[in-house]
Amino acid sequence: MQELKYAVIGNPVEHSLSPTIHSLFAKQFNLNLSYKPIKLQIDSFNQELLYLFKTNRLHGCNITAPFKVKAFEFVDELTERAQIAKSVNTIKKLNCGRLLGDNTDGFGLTNDLINKHIELTNKNILLVGSGGASRGIIFPLLMQGVKKISIVNRTEHKARELAKEFTPYGEVESLSLNNLQVVNSDIVINGTSATFSQDNFILSSSLKFTKNFTGYDLNYNEKKSDFICWSEQMKACENYNGFGMLVEQAALSFQLWFNQTPNTKAIFDHFRIFKSYSHFLI
């Protein structure tokens, strides 16, 4: 049986649960899958990744921080959702040798929110951060009927640029972090990598919320992130980590590679520990 060579590419990447998740998916279909974490250097990402594909050391891969925007520029072809996001988290080597880039992050997130019975239609979302993780989720959220997405970022002009880019698809605005005092949001999503950098979460603990809100961190690990601690302090009605998104986006990547839809419930049963808080960037 041919060995199928896949990986998750990032820096850092040692923490990733993707190898375990994809190995469990592969067992469902009796596939001989090799899936490993590979750390690439930021300055030589293109050269190193091209070498892995050209020498048949990879048939496909997932891309994690900080390479999702670099991967968008690296691939030969793009799916529609990756083109809109301008961010790639999944690469597939086609039979012709060309590399196809996709972004399964956003639809992984919306699938997880739907699984958790979190209503999205006509809801207001506050999105914190304007990097590759945030890029991947805006369009899928709008496609679920979200009323408005407000973006805040430590570097304000990046939030403005991102909001402007997505306004053709729905109501997206940027807010000034310095002037943010009252929040009218149903869901607050953390798309920053504060967990990696050890920074404190960028939103103030003096914010006033006009309604109950749900907190969702795109990160996962075995302890509470700064965002979850902040969200609890703000009296969020519910708080979730990004493990569900990780599993659901992985399932969509697997489907792209092998044209098979894995059973994600089996993964949640396997990782019962992640029913508590967990955080690291996917």
Automatic annotation (TrEMBL):
<dbReference type="GO" id="GO:0009423">
    <property type="term" value="P:chorismate biosynthetic process"/>
</dbReference>
<feature type="binding site">
    <location>
        <position position="218"/>
    </location>
    <ligand>
        <name>NADP(+)</name>
    </ligand>
</feature>
<dbReference type="GO" id="GO:0009073">
    <property type="term" value="P:aromatic amino acid family biosynthetic process"/>
</dbReference>
<protein>
    <recommendedName>
        <fullName>Shikimate dehydrogenase (NADP(+))</fullName>
        <ecNumber>1.1.1.25</ecNumber>
    </recommendedName>
</protein>
<feature type="binding site">
    <location>
        <begin position="129"/>
        <end position="133"/>
    </location>
    <ligand>
        <name>NADP(+)</name>
    </ligand>
</feature>
<feature type="binding site">
    <location>
        <position position="80"/>
    </location>
    <ligand>
        <name>NADP(+)</name>
    </ligand>
</feature>
<feature type="binding site">
    <location>
        <position position="220"/>
    </location>
    <ligand>
        <name>shikimate</name>
    </ligand>
</feature>
<dbReference type="InterPro" id="IPR046346">
    <property type="entry name" value="Aminoacid_DH-like_N_sf"/>
</dbReference>
<dbReference type="GO" id="GO:0019632">
    <property type="term" value="P:shikimate metabolic process"/>
</dbReference>
<keyword id="KW-0521">NADP</keyword>
<dbReference type="Pfam" id="PF08501">
    <property type="entry name" value="Shikimate_dh_N"/>
</dbReference>
<dbReference type="InterPro" id="IPR013708">
    <property type="entry name" value="Shikimate_DH-bd_N"/>
</dbReference>
<dbReference type="GO" id="GO:0004764">
    <property type="term" value="F:shikimate 3-dehydrogenase (NADP+) activity"/>
</dbReference>
<feature type="binding site">
    <location>
        <position position="64"/>
    </location>
    <ligand>
        <name>shikimate</name>
    </ligand>
</feature>
<keyword id="KW-0560">Oxidoreductase</keyword>
<dbReference type="Pfam" id="PF18317">
    <property type="entry name" value="SDH_C"/>
</dbReference>
<feature type="domain" description="SDH C-terminal">
    <location>
        <begin position="242"/>
        <end position="267"/>
    </location>
</feature>
<dbReference type="InterPro" id="IPR006151">
    <property type="entry name" value="Shikm_DH/Glu-tRNA_Rdtase"/>
</dbReference>
<comment type="similarity">
    <text>Belongs to the shikimate dehydrogenase family.</text>
</comment>
<feature type="binding site">
    <location>
        <begin position="153"/>
        <end position="158"/>
    </location>
    <ligand>
        <name>NADP(+)</name>
    </ligand>
</feature>
<dbReference type="InterPro" id="IPR011342">
    <property type="entry name" value="Shikimate_DH"/>
</dbReference>
<comment type="subunit">
    <text>Homodimer.</text>
</comment>
<feature type="domain" description="Shikimate dehydrogenase substrate binding N-terminal">
    <location>
        <begin position="8"/>
        <end position="91"/>
    </location>
</feature>
<feature type="binding site">
    <location>
        <position position="242"/>
    </location>
    <ligand>
        <name>NADP(+)</name>
    </ligand>
</feature>
<comment type="function">
    <text>Involved in the biosynthesis of the chorismate, which leads to the biosynthesis of aromatic amino acids. Catalyzes the reversible NADPH linked reduction of 3-dehydroshikimate (DHSA) to yield shikimate (SA).</text>
</comment>
<dbReference type="GO" id="GO:0005829">
    <property type="term" value="C:cytosol"/>
</dbReference>
<comment type="pathway">
    <text>Metabolic intermediate biosynthesis; chorismate biosynthesis; chorismate from D-erythrose 4-phosphate and phosphoenolpyruvate: step 4/7.</text>
</comment>
<dbReference type="InterPro" id="IPR041121">
    <property type="entry name" value="SDH_C"/>
</dbReference>
<feature type="domain" description="Quinate/shikimate 5-dehydrogenase/glutamyl-tRNA reductase">
    <location>
        <begin position="117"/>
        <end position="195"/>
    </location>
</feature>
<keyword id="KW-0057">Aromatic amino acid biosynthesis</keyword>
<dbReference type="GO" id="GO:0050661">
    <property type="term" value="F:NADP binding"/>
</dbReference>
<dbReference type="InterPro" id="IPR036291">
    <property type="entry name" value="NAD(P)-bd_dom_sf"/>
</dbReference>
<dbReference type="GO" id="GO:0008652">
    <property type="term" value="P:amino acid biosynthetic process"/>
</dbReference>
<feature type="binding site">
    <location>
        <position position="89"/>
    </location>
    <ligand>
        <name>shikimate</name>
    </ligand>
</feature>
<feature type="binding site">
    <location>
        <position position="249"/>
    </location>
    <ligand>
        <name>shikimate</name>
    </ligand>
</feature>
<dbReference type="InterPro" id="IPR022893">
    <property type="entry name" value="Shikimate_DH_fam"/>
</dbReference>
<feature type="active site" description="Proton acceptor">
    <location>
        <position position="68"/>
    </location>
</feature>
<keyword id="KW-0028">Amino-acid biosynthesis</keyword>
<feature type="binding site">
    <location>
        <position position="105"/>
    </location>
    <ligand>
        <name>shikimate</name>
    </ligand>
</feature>
<dbReference type="Pfam" id="PF01488">
    <property type="entry name" value="Shikimate_DH"/>
</dbReference>
<feature type="binding site">
    <location>
        <begin position="16"/>
        <end position="18"/>
    </location>
    <ligand>
        <name>shikimate</name>
    </ligand>
</feature>
